[in-house]
Amino acid sequence: MNHNSDNSKIFNLCCIALTVTSMTFAIRAGILGQLGTSFGLSDTELGWVNAMAFLGFPIATMIGGAIYNAIGARHLIAVAFIAHLLGLLLTISADGFWGLLISTFLIGFANGSVEAGCNPLIAEIYPDKKTTMLNRFHVWFPGGIVIGALASNAMSSLGFNWQWQVALILVPTIIYGILLLRSEFPEFDRTIHSTVSNLKNLFSPLYLGLVICMTFTATAELGTQQWIERILGASGASPMLILALITGLMAVGRFFAGPLVKKFNPTGILFGSAIFTTIGIFMMSQVQGSLVYFAAVLFAIGVTYFWPTMLGCVAEYTPKTGALGMSLIGGAGMFAVSIWNPVIGSWIDNAKSLAAAQNLATAQADLYAGQVVLGNLLMFPLILIAAFALLYFFVGKQSKPVTA
Q1: Which distant-in-sequence residues (6+ apart) come within 8 Å of 66 by Cβ?
Q2: Has residue 361 been placed in a domain?
Q3: What's the average model confidence in pLDDT over 371-386?
Q4: Tell me: the pLDDT tens digits for 78-98?
Q5: CATH code at position 44
Q6: CA–CA–CA angle 133, 322, 13 (5° rounding)
């Protein structure tokens, strides 16, 4: 058996499944305005719809991480496929707020199942280059967002309604379902994969600190991007093109992460990422027109390595937490975003109300609301600068060199 060939096939399957995950994210961001108009929803209600995707994710990762050693990656990815299929079909047929809540939760559960199955699988099949291959796998989160954002922008311009945009995601979903049936997954020695042992190692100060940081990195990255249409819609720049620009740069950066990991180690990368994210969000809150694109580039440089490098830190520095540790930290990040989504929606509603009281025109009110939200989001990367500085100097420099 050619294990390298088998590993490549499995890796490609995982990448397509992650592409589906990110397309749901991008297209949902692009159709928020249409959903609000179609169903008469406020931004706070849209926040609750968004929250379901980010709530379903951690529930799936908690369950998936706990049972990964018992059932394996194949079955978790199969659960993801079924939930993706059901969630997408129910979204297309939704007739109101509650239908959107349920279908969006299913999609979030599917997305979490992909992460719970694929992250530890990739770390196991590439034991000598965990962080690099996790970054390459996560190329397809921003990569799928580019595909979804451009497709949403084009379909909206051509007059396609939001149902057709959601239906587009069914194509890669069916592809990865077919590949799942045709792929042969590797078998691992289950005697060294103990969920009980993983659980015992979750309570180290380092792992718990990484979990807390993940809640901030995820909110800084995903909280900003998921609301891009509502935050930057009146900035004089195209929100979907900005999303495509950000995620395109993220995809390229993650693909070539290996040399950076070798030079700076994961903790150094995270420290630098927090600095760039802070500058990017601050600039987006201050500028308009073409300068928004430049600010978005700085933001993209910052958030590029957050998610996969946090997972890489767990795999490299707390390896005994195993599949459970990797799943739970991802779940913690998405759970935090689910909590903050309604809050972000309420920030927009409150800012618009304040703008209306000042008799600002609609466009000015929308611009003001977006700038207020970005100013509030700035607190997350600011906290991370301090946290990752401590991590770099007290963990990264004292640890053995990290294998890329």
Answers
A1: 195, 324, 327
A2: yes
A3: 95
A4: 999 999 999 999 999 988 889
A5: 1.20.1250.20
A6: 40
The tens digit of pLDDT for each residue in 208-255 reads 999 999 999 999 998 888 788 778 888 888 887 888 888 889 989 988
On whether the CB atoms of residues 266 and 131 are closer than 8 A, the answer is yes
Q: How many domains does the chain have?
A: 1
Could you give the 3-state DSSP secondary structure of residue 116?
A: helix
pTM over 0.85: no
Instruction: Please say if the pLDDT value at position 192 is more than 70.
Output: no
Inside any domain, residue 201: yes
- The reply to whether 120 falls in a domain is yes
Residue 403 domain-assigned (yes or no): no
First to last CA, the chain: 26
Distance CA 281, CA 268 (A): 20
Task: Give CA separation, 392 vs 20, 206, 268, in Å.
Answer: 34, 12, 6
**With b meaning 16 or more CB within 10 Å and e meaning fewer, what string describes 268-299?**
bbbbbbbbbbbbbbbbbbebeeeebbebbbbb
Structural domain of 246: 3-182+194-396
